[in-house]
Specification:
The chain is an all-alpha fold and 195 residues long. The chain is built from 9 helices and no strands. The chain has a single domain, classed as Serine Threonine Protein Phosphatase 5, Tetratricopeptide repeat.
Length: 195
Amino acid sequence: PPELSILNSCSSSQLEGLCSFLQLSTCPEPFLVLFCSWLLALTPDLSYTSAAVLAEQLFLRRVLSLTQPPSRHLMAALTSFCSKYSHPFCRVLVAAVLQEPGEGAEQTKLMCDLVEECLEPHSVQLVLSQVLEAPLSEKLLPVLQAVLERQEVLPPELLDLLVLTLCQQAPAFATSLSFAKLVTALLTVHQGQVS
């Protein structure tokens, strides 16, 4: 709809107000899919800041409250949004999921699915750097595994940080099968760069 062009002229606070007025954070998921398809067709593209505000308003509450796998509508909306705005999405949502206390099994699984299937290579690197900034925990190991399984070429400094982090954390994960799988994947995918 032509009315959506207003999204390009709103400030962050105006956009937050508009999202609140339209109740986008709680709208039915089929409408969320439709709204995200409209966002993809929007020209010009949303600014980084606007996309970050929309990522937060559309998805943050839904993702953090997951207690079972996301519905196909929510996955379709997430995939659609990520196809064009993966960088702001990662900045907002991945950071929030990483800061959530507790196991967050569904959130972790969702992050793995997005890394494996949706995110652009530069966004995968962003996820990796965000994970490495957080204290390493059992819940984050599958996300690192998903990043490695993408078999993307990683910048040397990011790979060095990953190797250093795993070396430092090895004693804490001495009995972890996930950690052993992660180290094996690292040695397999990046054997030429890891001495």
